[in-house]
Design a protein that fits this description.
Layout (H helix, E strand, L loop, with lengths): L1 H4 L5 H5 L2 H10 L7 H21 L8 H13 L3 H17 L3 E6 L2 E6 L31 H11 L9 H35 L3 H4 L2 H6 L6 H15 L13 H7 L6 H34 L13 H11 L3 H8 L3 H13 L21 H6 L4 H11 L1 H20 L5 H7 L3 H18 L7 H21 L1
Antiparallel strand pairs: 1-2
Helix pairs in contact: 3-4, 3-5, 4-6, 5-6, 6-8, 6-12, 7-8, 7-11, 8-13, 11-13, 11-14, 11-15, 16-19, 16-20, 18-19, 18-21, 19-21, 19-22, 21-22
GO molecular function, one term: transcription cis-regulatory region binding
GO biological process, one term: negative regulation of DNA-templated transcription
Protein name: Negative regulator of systemic acquired resistance SNI1
Length: 471
């Protein structure tokens, strides 16, 4: 029986190393031939860790081996039930025992990083510390930058109907694993971001997991971004922001009873899409902070050189126009979505009416108001669409207008986005309608998508209402 090899440990057993022994049994399952017994052993181990570190009256922080054992169950469970249970346990442990967090110190928030804590990533110099007792930690299952990139590459391309159940389950487990890795990056990034805003100390981000991961020579950044964009395009049709929650263990258990795990796979695809969005936004924020640090002279050669993610995205969207629609449907973060659109237009718009400050060649001054000014006459609209195409122009303008509408409904962090818009909603709505009218004059037979029709209808309705309110 499984209990003879992996007895459920009590909190007291955790103190004397009982859970560590249980972990070692999972890490080295030699001699175990019955997969059912192995499944029960791992389930018992997860319950033991939960009991000792979360549910006990006096819970203790998990040891390195305990964390590592749970993470290996997530990767090698061959069971949706165990994969989701280990995912939940890792997420709860991360919340209870954070590695990176803020503390109040003298009226301001100080960053605390417990560098000795376990991590799913193997980055930096790649050295592996010795475990208590002198035994070397096994790191083959941890994620260095190269393996993180390979995970995303493996996720590109949905599992087809001819694949066996094992491969289908593995595809879902990869998505859950990716969600956990992005969550780890996010829980390290967010407190650093808060601390940086107060101190403007670039070292805070130089030592961040995300910066070290993406700055590694083991990761080919352009290929990494392109594969992330492929995943965005792959997952966007069923994407809903309402499913940002983590997968439930009950859902995983019931999935095994379904004739097909397609529904559960779609659910995890939606959640993976949310994680992809978070990853994109974090990298964009990191690039913006590094640019600011460069301006202040805070960076050095040790920080390395990497193309900003915005440049890679723009290149990919420019040379693969078929990606445009799905990318902007999937990537809904207004601030960055508008920035991508404005920089896309900057490749084709002249400098004259766009840049009115002394910044010269800087693209920072380009605003949506300026972009729309290029479409206020049929002549100027023709000059632009001759370079970028009418369909592309319509699509980008419609998505930019959608951002304008979202800003009206979300005032949490809209100042920067409002500045990028550069005009009132009434002015933008009027000019948006004029732009489409002039695009129709340039190409009378151009097709307008349902999304663009809806944007035009909204603009016309708002224009009438806002004009009536002024009377």
């Amino acid at each position: 029986m499984a209990s003879s090899r992996a007895p459920t440990c009590t909190p007291a057993a955790a103190a004397d190393g009982g859970i560590e022994e249980n972990a070692m049994a999972i890490l080295d399952p030699s001699g175990i031939k019955d997969s059912r017994d192995l499944h029960e052993d791992r389930a018992a181990f997860l319950e033991a860790v939960r009991s000792a570190c979360l549910a006990a009256n006096n819970p203790s922080a998990p040891s390195w081996r305990m964390y590592d054992g749970v993470f290996q169950v997530l990767q090698n469970s061959s069971s949706l039930e165990l994969a989701v249970a280990s995912f939940h346990l890792l997420m709860e442990l991360g919340k209870r025992y954070p590695r990176t967090y803020l503390t109040d110190s003298g009226g301001h928030q100080s960053l605390v990083v417990a560098k000795e804590s376990w991590l799913p990533f193997l980055i930096g110099n790649g050295s592996v510390s010795n475990e208590i007792g002198g035994n070397a930690r096994s790191s083959d299952h941890l994620f260095d930058p190269s393996r993180f990139s390979l995970l995303i590459e493996a996720m590109v391309g949905p599992t087809n109907a001819t694949d066996d159940d094992k491969n289908e389950i593995k595809a879902i487990e990869n998505m859950i694993l990716f969600q956990y890795l992005v969550n780890t990056l996010e829980t390290d990034f967010v407190p650093r971001h808060i601390a940086y805003k107060e101190s403007l100390d670039w070292v805070i981000f130089r030592e961040s997991l995300l910066n070290m991961l993406l700055g590694s020579r083991k990761l080919v950044f352009k290929s990494f971004v392109k594969n992330c964009m492929l995943l965005l395009n792959q997952y966007h049709p069923e994407a809903k922001d309402a499913v940002e929650g983590v997968p439930s263990e009950e859902a995983a258990k019931s999935a095994s009873d379904l004739d097909s795990s397609l529904s559960y796979s779609l659910l995890e695809s939606e959640r993976t899409l949310v994680s992809l969005r978070k990853l994109f936004v974090m990298v964009m924020e990191l690039d913006l902070i590094k640019k600011e640090a460069d301006t202040l002279g805070l960076t050095s050669r040790a920080d390395g050189v990497r193309n900003p993610i915005m440049e890679v995205i723009l290149d990919e969207l420019t040379y693969n126009i078929s990606y445009l629609s799905s990318f902007f449907l999937a990537f809904v973060e207004g601030k960055w979505k508008l920035e991508i659109i404005l920089q896309y237009f900057s490749k084709y718009c002249g400098k004259g009416p766009v840049r009115t400050r002394r910044s010269g060649n800087s693209q920072e001054d380009l605003k949506l108001e300026s972009v729309l000014s290029f479409f206020l006459t049929a002549t100027s609209a023709k000059a632009i669409v001759k370079k970028m195409g009418t369909e592309v122009a319509q699509l980008l303008l419609a998505h930019a207008y959608q951002v304008c509408l979202s800003v009206q409904n979300d005032t949490s962090d809209s100042t920067a986005t409002t500045n990028k818009i550069g005009a009132s909603l009434k002015e933008i709505s009027c000019n948006f309608i004029y732009a489409f009218q002039n695009l129709r004059k340039v190409e009378p037979n151009i097709q307008i998508s349902p999304f663009e029709k809806e944007a035009l209808f909204t603009a016309a309705t708002l224009t009438r209402r806002l004009k009536n309110e002024e009377k």
